Amino acid sequence: MIARPEAATLEPLLEQLGLRQAAAVLPDWLDRAASQELSYADFLHGLLEEESVARANAATQKRLRQAGFPYAATIEQFDFRFRPELKRQVVLRYLDPTFVEQARTLALIGPPGLGKTMLAICVATKHIQLGATARFITAQQLANQLGRALTSAGRQRVLRPLLACDVLVLDELGYLPTLPGFGPALYELIAGRYERRPTLLTSNKSLTEWAAIVQDASLAAALVDRILHHGEVNVIDTIRNLVNQDGAQSAGLLSSRGIRCLGARLLSSSAGANQTSRSAASWHYRKIWHSATVCASAGSSRCRPACLPHPHPAQFVSHSRHSTR
Fold this sequence. Notes:
Layout: H1 5-16, H2 20-36, H3 40-67, H4 88-93, H5 98-101, E1 105-109, H6 116-129, E2 134-138, H7 139-148, H8 152-164, E3 167-173, H9 182-193, E4 199-203, H10 210-214, H11 217-229, E5 231-235, H12 238-245, H13 256-269, H14 275-292
Parallel strand pairs: 1-4, 1-5, 2-3, 3-4
Helix pairs in contact: 1-2, 2-3, 8-9, 9-11, 11-13, 11-14, 13-14
């Protein structure tokens, strides 16, 4: 590289304008312009393009740090050979920009040690690379932060960044017991992101066990309703076999029959609850039943009623106090 006097003049100006990468590569571009006889426009375009790429990379690294991932992981590092029930073509759909644009939800269910957290981080990392913001938090961290928030304002300070980020990863839901106040806060978080921003959840508990996590059957039914409306549940390994018996697809996604069984179990779990909780659970039961029968109206035999009976009006009390979407 030939030392050029014009570089010594231009570099301080570029630094002063905040174009640090352009200042760093200026000598190289001056040499290239001289050797390749670049036009002024080509020289300026190449110099500014390097500045733009450097800024984009720096912004991506900043978003990755802000996300708070416990470790770095990309989809290229995920070995699908060890998780054959996770079909690569299905997972790749979650990496598409439409996952954020459509505010979809993905729940990864299965025993510990099967790569659920890594896969969630891979998906969130990809969207950070595409320009989105993300946050990672475990259910226990969220519960601890909420426990320290003694006022409504303190609770909102905890939830606000989780509601505002483009992609949220809520990890290890159900691993440890939580306080009674966790369920309503979790619902506020999921409902606040519903149809606005995508959410990734991992849990070692099947959806039918979420009533025990939030300590309220009707609240669990409402959570599941919002997750399933614009989302998918991917069940990994041994739980996948249980779901397949209820008619799940080969990719591990809950079928409509599986959803009906889920609704029935959620409803039965509220049997010992008071009348208000029972009414709310049955209302969500009917919504889950209805969503599961949409494809049945189109003639799909595998979506026919299975383990849920038709919700005859006589079975339920009035639900006029519950809002509908």
